[in-house]
Amino acid sequence: MAQSVVLEGALLEGAIGKCCGAPVRAPLTRPEAEELASLLKAVADPARLQLLSIIRSAADCSACVCDLVPAVGLSQPTVSHHLKVLTKAGVLTREQRGTQAWFRLVPERLDQLGQIFA
Amino acid sequence: MAQSVVLEGALLEGAIGKCCGAPVRAPLTRPEAEELASLLKAVADPARLQLLSIIRSAADCSACVCDLVPAVGLSQPTVSHHLKVLTKAGVLTREQRGTQAWFRLVPERLDQLGQIFA
DNA sequence: CATCAATATTGACATACATCGATGAAGAAT
DNA sequence: ATTCTTCATCGATGTATGTCAATATTGATG
C-alpha cells in the first residue's frame, strides 16, 4: 500500500490554488499529476461522497457496513467495493469488530485533498 | 450551462471535512453528491490537473492552447477535449483572441473545490 | 461440527472516458 | 479569393469503471 510519496512535499501547499497574488509555483509533472489524480478519482464519485459524508456525520467518524448499505441504497457488494476504493486511497481505515467491519475517516488525508486547491 | 445550484449553499463550508471537533453536518443527498462528484470528476484527471497547474503558473493565470499542447505532450485534439471539460465545469473560461484561444482560471470555482473537504 | 450472519470476492455487463487521426470551421495574411 | 494557422469536432478504439447476482470467506453461536 504505497500511499502518497509526492503528496508529502511542498505540493500540498496549494498545487492548483488561485493564482494572481499567490506565490508562483512550478507546474505539476506528469507523475505528480497522476498521483494527485488518483487521490481525486477515489473521491470523485457520488456513492463514495455519500459514504464519506455519512461516516463524517456519525459518532467518532466511523460507521459499520451494515449501516452504510441501507443508507446509500446500493447493493452490499457495491458498497463494499466503494469502501475498498476509499480505503486503498487512504481516506478510510478498516477495523474488524466480530463479524462486522467498521470504517473510519482519516482526517489528515482529507486535509490533503482540501489543500490541493488551497 | 447550468453550473452549480447546490454548491451555492451551506454545502460549501466543508461538506466532507474532518469530523470530530467540527460541527455536525447532515449527510449529502444523492443529488448533492452527484453535483459535487461531477465537479471533482472534471478535475480528477492527470492531464487536466497538469493543464490547470500550467495555467496557474502563467502570467494572469491564462494561457493559449498553442502553448498548452506542447507543455503537456498530448495531441491537440486531446488537449482541446480536456479544456472543454474544464470549461464546462466552470473551472476555466475561454476567450478568443484572433485565431487563438486563451483559457483563464476561475479562482472562485477552485475555492469551492478546496472547501469541499475543508 | 453445523449453521447463521456479515463482508468480501468473482464474473458479467453496460456505460463512460481518454486518446488519437482525420476532418471541419474560423480568422489572418498574402 | 486562396492559403495558412489555430483550434474544435467527429469517428473509432481500447481501457476503466459502476453495478449487480452469485458465490466464497470469515467470525460467532448453538
From TrEMBL, chains A, B:
Keywords, ordered alphabetically: DNA-binding, Transcription, Transcription regulation
Classification via SMART domains: HTH_ARSR
Domain named HTH arsR-type: residues: 28-118
InterPro entries: ArsR-like_HTH (IPR011991), ArsR_HTH (IPR018334), HTH_ArsR_DNA-bd_dom (IPR001845), HTH_MetalResp_TranReg (IPR051081), WH-like_DNA-bd_sf (IPR036388), WH_DNA-bd_sf (IPR036390)
The keyword rRNA-binding is annotated on this UniProt entry: no
Pfam families xref list: HTH_5 (PF01022)
Keyword hit for Transcription: yes
NCBIfam families: HTH_metalloreg (NF033788)
PANTHER family for this protein: ARSENICAL RESISTANCE OPERON REPRESSOR, TRANSCRIPTIONAL REGULATOR, ARSR FAMILY
Protein name according to UniProt: Metalloregulator ArsR/SmtB family transcription factor
